[in-house]
Amino acid sequence: MNTVANTSPAASRESAVDTRATRPTPWWRQALLTRATAILALDIALFVLFTALSDNGVFASSDNVQALLLAGTEALLLAVGLAMMLGAGIFDLSLGANLVLSSVVGARVMLHISTPAADGTYPHAAAAVLAGLLACVVTGAVFGTINGLLVAYLRINALIATLGTLGIGTGIGYVISNGTDLSGVPTQLQENFGLRTIGVLPVPALVALVVATALYVCIRYTRFGMRTLAIGSSFSAADRVGIKAPRHLLKLAILGGALAGVAGFIDLSHFGSTAIQGHSNDALNAVTAAVIGGTMLEGGKVSIIGALWGTALAVILQSGLVIVGVSSYYQLIAVGGVLILAVALDRLTYIRRRAT
C-alpha cells in the first residue's frame, strides 16, 4: 500500500533551516573568521599603505623586508613564549630583562673564550659561539625557573613576581656589564648567523618561525598543549582531574625564559654587541602581539599564528612610521593604542564566551 507524506510548506522550511543549522561550517570559512586572519589582513593593508607613502616604494624593497624580518625575530620569540604562558594564566613582565641579562652573560662567556688576536682573527671562535649560545639559553631558563617557582609554588601574583624579577634581572645585567654594552664578540657570529640570509629570509627569522611552528603543533596536538589550556580555563578543575598544575606552570615559565635566552643570543648575533638600553618595551610588544592575535589574557586560549601576525603588525607599524617621517615618540603611542584595542577585544570576547 502506497502512502504519501503530508508535509506542509512551513514544515519544509523548518526542516531546511534545521539542516542548515546543523551543517558544519567549512574549514575555509572558519579560517576567514578568526582573529589571526583579520590581523593578517590588517598587516597587508598597512604594508601596502606604507609602501605607497614611502619614497619610490622603498618600504617594499628587499633590504627593508629583511630588516623587518630581523626586527620581528626577537619579538616573535618573546610573543610565542608569552602566549604559551598566558594560555595557562601566567603574565610575564620580565621578558625584556631576561633577554638583556641572557645576552650579557652570553657575551661575557664569548669574550672570555675568544678575544681578537693582533691580526684581527678570533681564536676558538666556534667554541666561543657555541658556549655563548648555551650560556644565553641556560641563563634565560634559570630566569624563567625563578619566575615559575615564585608564581607556581609560592603563589605570588604573576604581575608582582615578574615586576620584581624585571628589576633584579636588569640590575644584575648592569652589574655584569658595568652599565655599558659589551662588544668584541667573534665576527663569525654575525657573518655566519646574525646577518646571514637564505634568499630574502634571514637565518634568525627562520629559527623563530621553526620555534613558532613547533609551539603551534604543541598547543594543537599534544597533551602538553591540552594541559596548558585546561589550567588556563580553570586551575582548580585541572587540579581535580589530576593535572599537576604547579609543575606545568613551572615548565611553561622555563620554556618562556629559554626562548628569551634564544632571543638574547639572536640580539648579540644581529648587532655584534649587547644592547642593554634597547629592550625596555619588549614586554609591551610581546603582550600586544600575543593578545591582539587572539590569545586570552585570562587563559584558556592560545593563538600562535595570531601571535605571528600580531608581531608583524607591531613591526610594520613601527618601521612604517619611521620611514614616512613620523617621530619615534609616536611609535610608543601607536603601540600602546594597539595594546589597549587588543585588550578591549580580548575582554569583549571573554564576556561573550562567559555569556554563552
Report on the structure:
With 356 residues, this protein is mainly α. It has one domain: Orthogonal Bundle (ABC transporter involved in vitamin B12 uptake, BtuC). Helix content is 73%, strand content 1%. The chain is built from 15 helices and 2 strands. Strands 1-2 form a two-stranded antiparallel ribbon. Strand 1 and strand 2 form a beta hairpin. Helix 4 packs across helix 10 and helix 5 crosses helix 12. It is globular and about 70 Å long. The N terminus is likely disordered.
Query: What's the shape?
Result: globular
Q: What summary fits the major beta sheet?
A: 2 strands, antiparallel
Q: pLDDT under 50 segments (min length 5)? A: 1-5, 11-22
Helix fraction bin: over 70%
Helix/strand order: HHHHHHHHEEHHHHHHH
Number of domains: 1
Separation, N- and C-terminal Cα atoms: 49 Å
Assigned CATH architecture: Orthogonal Bundle
Structural class per helix/strand content? mainly alpha
Give me the CATH fold name: ABC transporter involved in vitamin B12 uptake, BtuC
- How much is the radius of gyration in Å? 24 Å
Mean pLDDT metric: 86
The proportion of strand residues reads under 5%
| DSSP helical segment count | 15
Report the top-level CATH class: Mainly Alpha
Total number of strands: 2
Give the neighbour order of strands across the main sheet: 1-2
